[in-house]
Amino acid sequence: MPFSKANAKVLLAGRIFQTGVQILWKTGKILNRLLFLCANEQSTTMQAKITALGTYVPERIVDNHYFETFIDTNDEWIVSRTGIRTRRYAAEHEYTSHLCVAAAKNMVEENLVVLDDVDFVLVATVTPDQTMPSVATQVQDKLGLTHAGALDISAACAGFAYGIILAQGLIAAGTHRKVLVFGAETLSKFTNFEDRTSCILFGDGAGAVLVEAAAEGNIRAVVSGSQGDSGKDLYMSNLRKQINGVDIITDNKIHQNGRAVFKWAVNTVSSQMSVLAERSGIALEDMDWFIPHSANMRIIEALCTQTGFPIEKTLESISLYGNTSSASIPLALHRGIREGKVKKGDRLLLIGFGGGLVYAGLVVEWG
């Protein structure tokens, strides 16, 4: 068949089309690469910054004399062994979600922040209103945060620190820009008042921080870890009657092996304080304030003794509010701010530890 001009035109058109397809394919690869680099650049430059704090404690004040009416104890014994003088108890119809909402309102009042554009809510608690729905969804609804995701965190007394770490991750991933983190408990509703060694410890309260995307963050280092084989030493029972093959008391109340938890807490937290100092590039002695979970004043004193950190530069909430689990760190921080101790630019070392057993901590440059 003779090769005509028409055939030549068809062949030429085919080659032009093929070349165009190759150019488009290569251009698409380049564009995809540019989009990836832009997204990666955005996620690495946007950092997490704690911009606001709020707290709330219930109105009812319970002093140590309250326990003298039904267990063998007294004010002097409780203060000498725990450092607790008072704690707060939620009202009969006041639950963890209510405390969270009140803490958020306090945040707005004291910091003049806007929460309408919050895109994620994290609530650390072991005392939810219900197992399902989550407390976070209840808070999202009550605050009218129509575009926010919601998640509960079960990490006991380390929950608040875990919440900030998770918020930092959401912002670093570029998926969220404004996260509300709560630590809130109504432990009085889950306390075994027949156990004289533990019922004196617990109180109710809530704290919240706003974590936002910023060009320059203020979270300098984080740490977290767990020791699940010791779960039996501090627990609140639910469905299963054993933890790691060990029988437990199944009454839906808090139970703990005080000596075991004390020893683990002092050894673990003291070592992680050094880790946080190293990761942040700030020497431990150069930290302005140490804010541990307020489990027991004797634990805090032991930590300061073991690490050499001055007790005078340590903030606590145990004396006024008792052990409030995930709420204890924000309550201690807020107390330090109100008393004029914590100032803008101060370097804070926060670390929570508790049931799991778990721990989590961070170094923050405040303000």
> What is the top-level CATH class of the largest domain?
Alpha Beta
Order of helices and strands: HEEHEHEHEHEEEEEEEHEHHHEE
Which sheet architecture does the biggest sheet show? 5 strands, mixed
Number of domains: 2
State the shape. globular
Helix content: 25-40%
CATH homologous superfamily descriptor of the largest domain: Thiolase/Chalcone synthase
CATH topology of the largest domain: the name is Peroxisomal Thiolase, Chain A, domain 1
Can you count the helices?
9
Question: How does the helix and strand content classify structurally?
Answer: alpha+beta
Please identify, by name, the CATH architecture of the largest domain. 3-Layer(aba) Sandwich
Distance between the termini: 84 Å
Percentage of β-strand residues: 15-25%
Uncertain segments are: none
Strand order, biggest sheet? 1-7-6-4-5
Quick rundown:
By secondary structure, the chain is α+β, with helices and mostly antiparallel strands.
